[in-house]
Description:
The protein is 48% helix and 11% strand. The chain is α/β, with parallel strands linked by helices. The strands form two sheets. Strands 3, 4, 5, 6, 7, 8, 9, 10 and 11 form a nine-stranded mixed β-sheet that branches. It has a two-stranded parallel sheet with strand order 1-2. The chain crosses the membrane at residues 34-52, 64-89, 109-132, 153-172.
Amino acid sequence: MKTLLRRTATLLAGLFVLFVLIAPSDLEKFTFEAFLRVPLEGLVGVLLLVAVPDRFRRPAAIALGVALGVFTVVKIMDIGFDMVLYRPFDLVLDWPLLVPALDFVDVTFGRFASVLAVVLTVALVVGIVFLAAVSVQRLGSVAAGRRPVTVRVVALAAVACVSLAVPGIPVYSDAAATSVADHARRFQAGLRDQEVFAAEASVDAFRGHPGLLSALQGKDVVFTFVESYGKSALEMPDVAAKLADGDARLKARGYAAKSAYLTSPTAGGGSWMAQATLLSGLWIDNQQRYRNLVASDRLTLPRAFREASWRSVGVVPGITQAWPEGDFFHYDEIYAAQDLGYAGPRFGYATTPDQFTLESFQRNERAKQHGPVMAAIPMVSSHAPWSPTPDFVDWDELGDGSIYATMPASNDPPESIFGRDPAAVRADYAHSVSYSLESVMSYLERYGDENLVFVFLGDHQPAQMVTGEGASKDVPITVVAKDPAVLHRIEGWKWDDGLKPGASAPVSRMSDFRDQFLSAFSPPKP
C-alpha cells in the first residue's frame, strides 16, 4: 500500500510539473496537441538535480520548486490578463491594478467579501508555491535514487526531440524559458518606463498657446466615451444596423458626421487609462503612468476648454466613491453617480442607464441659462457583463429613474461573462452597445442644435470572448455637428463621412487626438 501511495505521489508530482511547464499562457491555445510535447526545461531540471551533490539536493529542489511555484502564479496571472486585457501580466507595472480590482469587490459585495478575497488569494499563492516545492523535491529524490536510468531516459528524450522534429509539428516545448525571457524583458522595460514617460510628458506644444479653441467659441462641446465600443462591434449586424439607422435620422435633422479609428492603449478593461489618454494627449497604458499623469500639471482637453472660458464638467456615473484624481482634469463641476439624481436599480455594472446619464447632464447644464459648456461623459451601460440592458424609454418619462424599477436588473460582476455561453455574451454585448448608441443618437435628435458639437468614441475593445483572438485595439470615433464650419475644420483628417468608419478609414493613436483636435480649432502658434 505504501509503495502504491509513493508511486501515485510521484506520478501526480510529475503531471503537475509537466502541466505547468507545457501549459500555454493563453486559454485559446489549450488543446490536446499542445500537451503532447517534451518540456526542455524539465529535462535540464532533472539533470541538475541528479548531478548536484546529495547534501545540496534538497535545498536545490526546494529552490527550484519555489521558482516553479512563482512561475505558476505568474502564468495564472498571464492567462487572466490575456483573457481580459489581451496581454500578459507585467511584473513591474500591473501590481497597482490589483487595488482598483479590490475596490470593485469592496464597493460591489462589501468589505467582508474584499477581505475574504485577499485571504483566499494569499492562501492560493502559498498553496501553489508549496505544492510546486513538494513536487520538485519528490521528483528530485526519485531521479537521484535511480541515477543511471534517469540519465538514459533524459538522453533518449533529448535525442527524440531532435530526430523526430518535423517542421510545423513541435515535439519539444521551451515555452517556460521563453515566458521567463519575455517577462525579464518587460521587467527591464517597466523599470525604465517612468523615465520614458517623464520625457514624453515634458513636451507640450499647446502650453500657453494663444487663442486656444477660438474656432469653437459659442459651441457646447461634448466628449462621450461609449464603454467597450470597439472596432469589432461594427462587424455585428445589430450595431451596424443601428449606425445606419442613426445616419439617416441625424441627416434628416441637419447633422453631418465624420468617423475614423483610434488605437486605444488598453483592451478589455482599463477605461480610465483610455479616457486619460484621449484627454491628456499622452499614452497611458499602465497604472504607473496614470498615477504620474494625475500628479502632473499636464494640459488636458477639459482644462484647455476651461482656460478658454468654457464651463468644464465631468459626468462620471462610474464613480461611486471619492475621486481625488478628478482634480487633475480641472473640471468646474464633477457629477459622480450620486449626483445624477438617479433613483432606479443597477443594470449589471452600470450604476445609471446611459439615457438617464445624458438626460441628467442636459438638466443640470445645457437646459439652464448658460455660456458654452464642455463635458466629458463616460457612459457605462455597455460595460461587461452586458446583461441585463435597460429598455429605451420616452425622454419625458425618465423622471428620477423610478421607471426602470419595472425592468429586470442585477448586480452581476463583469467577470460573470466567463461562466456563460459565448454566443449569448456576444449577443448581449451587441444589444448593450446598440442601446448606448441609441441613447447618443436620440439625445442629438431631441437636444441638438447649431451650437452643439458631439464627439463619441469607444474607450477600448471588449474582452476576447467577444472579439476573438488577435483583435486589434482600435475603436471607432465620430464627430457630429450641424454647423458645417465645424466639420470643415477637420477635412484635412480625411475621416470617412457618416457614423460608421469604413474598413480603410484612417487610424491614429488615441494619444494623438488631443493635439489633432486643438490644432484644428485653434489658430497657428506664432
